[in-house]
Design a protein that fits this description.
The complex is a heterotrimer of chains A (149), B (336) and C (118). Chain A has 149 residues and is mostly helical. Chain A has one domain. Chain A is 83% helix and 0% strand. Chain A has eight helices and no strands. The mean pLDDT of chain A is 94. Chain B folds into two domains: 5-176, Stage V sporulation protein AD (Peroxisomal Thiolase, Chain A, domain 1, 3-Layer(aba) Sandwich); 183-335, 3-Layer(aba) Sandwich (Peroxisomal Thiolase, Chain A, domain 1), CATH 3.40.47.40. Chain B is α/β, with parallel strands linked by helices and 336 residues long. Chain B is globular. Chain C has one domain. Helices cover 84% and strands 0% of the residues of chain C. Chain C has helices at residues 2-23, 28-44, 48-55, 57-60, 63-81, 83-111. The longest helix of chain C has 29 residues, at 83-111. The model of chain C has no long low-confidence stretch (mean pLDDT 94). The chains are: A mainly alpha (149), B alpha/beta (336), C mainly alpha (118). Chains in contact: A-B, A-C, B-C. Chains A and C meet through helix 2, helix 3, helix 5, helix 6 and helix 7 of A and helix 1, helix 2, helix 4, helix 5 and helix 6 of C.
Chain lengths: 149, 336, 118
Amino acid sequence: MSQKKNRMNQKYNYYVNNVAPKPKYISNCIKAFFTGGTVCIIGFILQKWIQSKGLDQKTASSIVIMILIFSAQFLTGLGVFDDIVKFAGAGLIVPITGFANSIVSPAMEYKKEGIVLGVGAKLFSLAGPVLVWGFSASVIIGIIYAIIT
Amino acid sequence: MAVKKMGQQTIRFPLPPKIISAYSIVGPKEGEGPLKDWFDEILEDDMIKEKTWEKAESKMLRSAINASLKNCQKTPEDIDFLLSGDLLNQLMSASYTARDLGIPFYGLYGACSTMTESLSLASMLIDGGFADHVIAATSSHFSTAERQYRFPLEHGNQKPPTAQWTVTGSGALVLASQGAGPVITHITAGKVVDFGVTDANNMGAAMAPAAVDTIAIHFSDTGRSPDFYDLILTGDLGQLGKQIAKDLLTEKGFNVESVYNDCGVMIFDSINQDTHCGGSGCGCSASVFCGNIYKRMMKKELKNVLLVSTGALLSTISTQQGESIPGIAHAVAVSI
Amino acid sequence: MDYVYVFITGGIICVIGQLLMDGTKLTPAHVLVLFVTLGAVLTGLGIYEPIVDFGKSGATVPLPGFGYSLAKGAIEGVKSDGLLGAFSGGIEATAPGVAAAVVFGYAIAVIFSPKTKK
């Protein structure tokens, strides 16, 4: 690309950024803060309640995560999760609920393409990268830890 | 010798093809928009009792074509060519429609510009003496486009304010060498224009320069000015793209303020319908032209219209590779 | 008082995610990957553990908490099983969550169909 064209593109993109409507940062952040906080509080209350039944902390944590995942996926199935996210934004995407939604939503979407290459494969289309990066990071951290100690 | 070509990119039709019939079908959301009284048919359910969204889109396109044929008392056997396209990979909707109709078929992909792309080529086929009756039709469907280009329907995300909403809609036009109706006098074929916009959520900004390029060349090729037209209508630039197009045209010395509008802006009430910058998709300019504009021309409310459908020629792969979005726009001048 | 800490920690992590989505071109998928990886790395550096002690569920329910469980599991795995534990530890620790997400997800996908959006 010639330099002149490059400069023209930069000028145009600069102009576009100026006229483009901006996201409502403050109201989005407030919504995210309150819904995110609420999801965590729900997790905390569940955790305390399960621990009060005599289960240890680690088991209770796992059960809490499973309950939150199931709830988010069930709401996705009913078709309301994405409506709530329109309001809540990162408040529901960043908690484990967002991960749960990213698993079930493509799986539902690709039902008609079959249960193996449709649902089965697409289940991981958005969640796969999370697992790949998460697992890899944890293994590398483990190896580094083993080398240091 | 190209006797019918004028200027750089425009073709003049000495035997202008007539648009003898038009039919538009839109989905439920579009049917609640400001143009609801103009569409020929509003679907109650955008699945139309089909098993998949793709089948539903194909059925919608097929219904629009069949109804447009019925309107002018023709049968598929009377039609020489079907020029059609949609947004899906391998033109799934159009190809399956053509399979069922049994009309000789040219599949076209011009992203959201397919309506004027098919109209342009159909006009050339008729004026050139290659055909007497040609159908130009396109469709788009929110649910099929969304899953192909963006995220699954139930995926939780917030669309940025520059995003647009793919129109569920279809429009079919029957062009004929003889008959009554608005005539296509000129077409201006568009170049691919790319100003380096990479944001797939801001297609209005990516396509606006292409629309401006085509409109400006149309004026210089034909010697017409914006005053000649009652309406200059871009396809799906949306609110932001419309603003940009107006700014760029003013910069080039064309004052279009009083005659310019955009189908993507017209089709939705963006505040109450939560469509951000407006509608997009090839069904957008197709349904607005076939529904609203064609009928207003038949009533002589509008005499000269320049339809400029705009397309963003991106793919899911090009976006992931960080490529910028090439835009295209074809102009069709219609008069009555 | 714990409730306040949980709420604030969870809220702040979500606000960071919101700012990333609004202010950059990152999609939700990018944010998920980034947060899980970041959680694991911060745990490896010993920074996330104190946040979990302070924020409890506020730090474990958001996705960095998933990265935290992975990294913590891997480190504990190394402690008990040596190098092999680096491979098994993280996945073992998060297995209930991942398996639940996959199995519930599959079941929900079979039962429900996506609806068109208004």
